[in-house]
Design goal:
Number of strands: 19
Oligomer: single chain
Number of helices: 2
Radius of gyration: 40 Å
Number of domains: 3
Helix content: 10-25%
CATH topology of the largest domain: Immunoglobulin-like
Length: 291
Amino acid sequence: MRSSFIPIILGAITVTLTACGGGGGGGGSDSSYSSASTGSTSTGSAGTSGSSTTTTSSNAAPAFADLVSTISVNENQTSITTVEATDADSDMLSFSLNGGDAQDLSIDLQTGVLVFLSAPDYETKTTYQTDVVVSDGTTSTTQAITIEIVDIAETSSEAPLEINITVDSGTNMYGSGNKYYANDITNNESPDIRLEAGKTYRFLQSDSSNSTHPMRLSLQEDGTHGGGSEYTSNIDYVGSAGSSGAYLQFTVPADIDAETLYYYCQTHSGMGGRILITAATGTGYEIVGMN
C-alpha cells in the first residue's frame, strides 16, 4: 500500500509543477521564461527607439580655392583665369556669374574657366567687376572680383611694342592641336605677324595657357622641329612662359637680311607661323589672319 501511494502523490506533484511552473516556483522553468520575456521586451524597445530617431545631415557650403579678389589681365586677350572650388560633401559643383559686368564675361558651368566674350581694350574700359557664384545644388557661395586691364604698347610711338600670345587648340598648315594665337583675334591660329625693321617688340607669354610652350624664333620653318636652329640675335627672354610678366623681346635689326622669320614652340612642333619683316613705316605691327 505504501509503495503504490507514493508514485501517485509524486505524479500529482509532477502535474502540479508542470501546470503551475510559470507562476511560481520552479527555478529552471521560470528562469527560462523570464529570459525570453526580457529579450522580447528589449527587442521591441530597441525597434521603437530606432524608428523614432531622426538623423539630420547638414550640408556644407562649397568654398572657393584661392580665388583672389583682384585679377590683372593684359588687354587684347580673352582668357582671365580658371575658378576652382571644393566641397566637403563631395557634391557636384556648378559656377555662374551674377551682376556687375557679367554680360561681358562667361564662365564654364562645370570647369570654371572664366573669359571675356570679347578681348578688352584698355583705352575703352580699364576695370570689370562681377560676383562669382559656386553652388552644390543646395547651398551657394559668392565672391566679388575685380578684373583690372593692363595697358600694353600698341603703336609705334610706344616702345617696346607688345603683342599678347596665348595658346589654344586650332588647325594650321601643320594640322590640328595646340597653336599660338596673337591678341586673341578670332580665327588667327598661327597668324602671319608683320614687324618693322628697327623696332622693338615684346611677345607677352604671361597668360597661363603658355605654360610649357616657350616661344622661340628661327630662320627655318617650324624652327628646330623643321631642322633649323634658334635665331638669337637681339633677343631677350624674361620669366618662364605661362608665369606673370614673362615675355620674349626682339629688336628687329635695322639692317636685317631676312625678310621672313618663323616663330615656334621650343617644346612642341607645329604650333607657330611666320614673321614678315618690312621697312619702318611707323605703323608698329600687323597681325594677318591665318597662314
